[in-house]
Amino acid sequence: MPKKRSGSGLSATQQAAKFLGVSVLAGAVMAGIALPAAGALGLAAKGSVKGFDEIPANLKSPQLSQRTNILDSQGNQIAAVYSRDRTVVDLKDISPYMQKAIVAIEDSRFYKHGAIDLKGVLRALNKNAQSGGVAQGASTLTQQLVKNYFIEEAGDDPTKVAEATQQTLGRKIRELKYAIQIEEKLGKKKILENYLNITFFGEQAYGVEAAAQRYFSKHAKDLTLQESALLAGIVQSPSRYDPVNDEAEATKRRNTVLQRMAEVGDISQAEADQAKEKPLGLHPSQPKNGCITAIDGAGFFCDYVREVFLTDPVFGKSREARAKLWNQGGLTIRTTLDPQSQKSAQASIKDHVYKSDAVATAATVVEPGTGKILAMGQSRPYGFGKDETQINLSVNQNMGGGAGYQPGSTFKPIVAAAAIEGGKPATQQYSSPYEMYYPSPVAACDGKTWHNDPGKPAKLTNENASEHGPYGMKEATAKSVNTYYVQLISDIGICPVTDMAKRMGVERADGRKIDQAPSIALGTQEMSPLTMANAYATFASRGMYCTPVAIESITQQVGSEKKSLEVPKSTCSRAMSEKTADTVSTILKGVVEDGTGQEAGLGSRPSAGKTGTTDKRYAAWFVGYTPNMAGAVWVGDPAHKRRMTNITIGGIPHDKVYGGEVPGPIWRDMMTGALDGKPAPDFQLVDIPDDNKGGDRGKGRGGNDDGNNGDNTGGLIGGLIGGLTDGGTTGDTTGATTGDTTGGTFPTPTFSLPGNFIQGQTNGGNGNGFGGRKG
């Protein structure tokens, strides 16, 4: 017998001899090992090895990790995600050739011995003693199954994997006890079925069904003799016998399996010889794992579904528990994604913005009254390469997005809703001068008051000197008059606006609270497209806000059975009265028909919406809706470095980008395709008398959008807005204000805030903030 290796304990041969010796001394070999099943538990009866009785008696078969299939609302697969590519199948769905091949090469006496093959142990012991090492193993399929159980439980933890595969006497003893238990409990057919489903076949394929798909693009039940022999041969060393990378070595191994099948009588020698002459016949399919493989640009929606799963307590009390369930897989997740809407969104995005453009676009569509997310896409694809990203530009930071983008004048309808809900009529007029100082003081929340800085009071302007009031709400919204909306929020107070925003699910993308400053009326708080689309869906559903939802149902494969899992449900609540919502819809319908959003119109189909362009043209928006669908489109530089002036987008040059000019047509084409074939209901409109006092002001210029040019600073002065008083809370005001200020098609944004006016607008992460613009 070889000598003990220095510093390494017993040699493998010595360990095997000791293991065999203690078993024989216990009088258990014949009772529990050599004989099939009956009396198997006799090994433990006399305490054959110290500590044997302390090993837990019940080994629970692990829930095998499998692929998870994510489907759209029609049942079409969006993507498959998995930690291990595996599809569990019944033994009847595995080719008989495959069953015979794996038994022949791995454990030819499988049906003749119990948990341990005594003849195999003696044969291996003799062979190893002669070679002075470990030339031959003696593990049965049952023991290998136990070992694979331990590996499966270890998951991707390298320490646990090492423990599960270490060549020690202790592991062998534990393996033995559990193998005996499994033989008693499962029987040979179930053991073979479990083994074929758990074993690794290389090339990311776990289990014979995944292996059949990977190497031959077929189901396990359809494997031929030579194909079965090839797969059975891979198991011993998946890397060495990988047919994709070493066809010659794999062929030798396949032929070895075929010969062994002939020797044990599973096939004739003639059949073996004939099969040996055939080529491998590979028809490999590439592994497809993860949201990066999603169809129709749905990778970001797929990623959003994953984030919902990992963050929602309905799937587990802790993130660790939810992650374990996700990695375990075997889930079929049916989502809310509407394939028609998704295809239309991606087609529109592709037509209008190239992935290589200096700026990007993101679009989201939701269903009013249900909160269902119908589409989610962006121009920069999901990936790791050039002009690709893994940041979901449509969602909040905590769900895989960035810190958001200032929505500009698309926030103004929320101010209007707060005012109307509080009793202001839609005919409410304000002087709306061309330029003005921010009114001061302005009531804020919790009894606080916002004050303009008396030393350096901030001023704002409309588009040009001819743009002045008085204006009523309808005309001021159609032209997106900045001074009107600042006067309106100063009149009603800041708190009703932030309260309305909260009821409509409007929150900053970075998770911070909305600032207590009148400048929020001009859309200075960074939001995500999903937030804005869902907020406008509240108008479409006549005042009912529904939380966004992405998952319809989930079933989990557990063994041969399927069970349904509870999923998050959308919760709906009334954000405003029907009359308020209908009034806002009437106002926003005018924006599309006669105001800055004309290029977003849907023709004969009733629609409503609002444009928005932010400070220095870092972002442009169109958010709109019909009674049965709402959507938001954002265009801009996610890093907030590229201003959209003198820029080419989608092959079209632009001197300046407006919300109605670029996002508007994207929204129009997206919604046209998404709504094709669907009903075209009208809004419940209210009568808002026209304001004729303004005459034809502002109609001499074409104009589309709002916001700040950033170059036109003549009407502004430097200054610092004071904080909130009555408590000393500083008003975290912002810089990027908007002002859709002319009556035609494309007005030029007019004013930027002075230096020191902006406080606290920092980049919240992922390059999506405004980098603390302070001047």
Automatic annotation (TrEMBL):
<keyword id="KW-0472">Membrane</keyword>
<dbReference type="GO" id="GO:0004180">
    <property type="term" value="F:carboxypeptidase activity"/>
</dbReference>
<feature type="transmembrane region" description="Helical">
    <location>
        <begin position="20"/>
        <end position="45"/>
    </location>
</feature>
<keyword id="KW-0808">Transferase</keyword>
<dbReference type="InterPro" id="IPR050396">
    <property type="entry name" value="Glycosyltr_51/Transpeptidase"/>
</dbReference>
<keyword id="KW-0645">Protease</keyword>
<feature type="compositionally biased region" description="Low complexity">
    <location>
        <begin position="731"/>
        <end position="744"/>
    </location>
</feature>
<dbReference type="Pfam" id="PF00905">
    <property type="entry name" value="Transpeptidase"/>
</dbReference>
<keyword id="KW-0511">Multifunctional enzyme</keyword>
<keyword id="KW-0812">Transmembrane</keyword>
<feature type="domain" description="Glycosyl transferase family 51">
    <location>
        <begin position="75"/>
        <end position="261"/>
    </location>
</feature>
<feature type="region of interest" description="Disordered">
    <location>
        <begin position="673"/>
        <end position="744"/>
    </location>
</feature>
<dbReference type="InterPro" id="IPR001460">
    <property type="entry name" value="PCN-bd_Tpept"/>
</dbReference>
<protein>
    <submittedName>
        <fullName>Membrane peptidoglycan carboxypeptidase</fullName>
    </submittedName>
</protein>
<keyword id="KW-0378">Hydrolase</keyword>
<feature type="compositionally biased region" description="Gly residues">
    <location>
        <begin position="712"/>
        <end position="730"/>
    </location>
</feature>
<dbReference type="InterPro" id="IPR012338">
    <property type="entry name" value="Beta-lactam/transpept-like"/>
</dbReference>
<dbReference type="Pfam" id="PF00912">
    <property type="entry name" value="Transgly"/>
</dbReference>
<dbReference type="InterPro" id="IPR036950">
    <property type="entry name" value="PBP_transglycosylase"/>
</dbReference>
<keyword id="KW-0121">Carboxypeptidase</keyword>
<dbReference type="InterPro" id="IPR001264">
    <property type="entry name" value="Glyco_trans_51"/>
</dbReference>
<feature type="compositionally biased region" description="Basic and acidic residues">
    <location>
        <begin position="690"/>
        <end position="704"/>
    </location>
</feature>
<dbReference type="InterPro" id="IPR023346">
    <property type="entry name" value="Lysozyme-like_dom_sf"/>
</dbReference>
<feature type="domain" description="Penicillin-binding protein transpeptidase">
    <location>
        <begin position="362"/>
        <end position="635"/>
    </location>
</feature>
<keyword id="KW-0328">Glycosyltransferase</keyword>
<keyword id="KW-1133">Transmembrane helix</keyword>
